[in-house]
TrEMBL record:
Necessary for normal cell division and for the maintenance of normal septation. GO terms for molecular function: GTP binding; metal ion binding. Its cofactor is Mg(2+). It comes from the Bacteria. Pfam families: MMR_HSR1. This is Probable GTP-binding protein EngB. GO terms for biological process: division septum assembly. One of its GO terms (cellular component) is cytosol. Belongs to the TRAFAC class TrmE-Era-EngA-EngB-Septin-like GTPase superfamily. EngB GTPase family. Gene3D superfamilies: P-loop containing nucleotide triphosphate hydrolases. Keywords: Cell cycle, Cell division, GTP-binding, Magnesium, Metal-binding, Nucleotide-binding, Septation. The keyword Cell wall biogenesis/degradation does not apply. Residues 22-194 form the EngB-type G domain.
Amino acid sequence: MQVTDAEIIISAVSPKQYPTTGLPEFALAGRSNVGKSSFINKLIRRKALARTSSKPGKTQTLNYYLINKAFYFVDVPGYGYAKVSKTERAKWGEMLETYFTQRETLQHVFLMVDFRHPPTADDIQMKEFIEYYQIPYTVIATKADKIPRGKWNQHTSQTKKALGLKNDDALIIFSSESGEGKDKAWNVISQYLS
Ligand code: GDP
């Protein structure tokens, strides 16, 4: 897809601030630092529209990016950040649950996990949460450039096994450095756009 227009719409702290255009939304869920902002920037070919985080876990907002005035990327705040207090974590969980369960324009979640390491308990919990609410999702394994190609199969198995995915379930191996997986990610999005 040719991206001709990309803008930050809002960092929403409450559902009242979510856009009311009715345009489709694609959420990026994953731990802080997993590469959500880099994924957005790579797909839309901007260096830094989405701010790559210097302070992981600090953003407790849903960040809306409007692309080609046709759909939104929604950057969901990172989870699994040890320094976030229990209260903050609970607040974050509530916000996320409300968003995932009540947002009718949410089409698909990209669940971002770090390809280098086995998924964490938080990753697994997020996957179960998304499945429980029957939201269509695709796992994106990030930072693939840091793993030699010869080990990709091994890392794919490791990731799928930990997440309880079947062998033929989709997983997109992605790198914001090399652009690996970018076309496959766009293919997922395109299915929802007329
Ligand atoms: P976010 O917190 O999930 O939005 O993660 P960011 O996109 O801010 O990325 C966190 C850090 O990982 C940054 O230093 C990025 O440059 C780096 N990073 C993200 N994606 C990749 C990738 O595919 N390859 C490599 N080598 N580094 C990446």
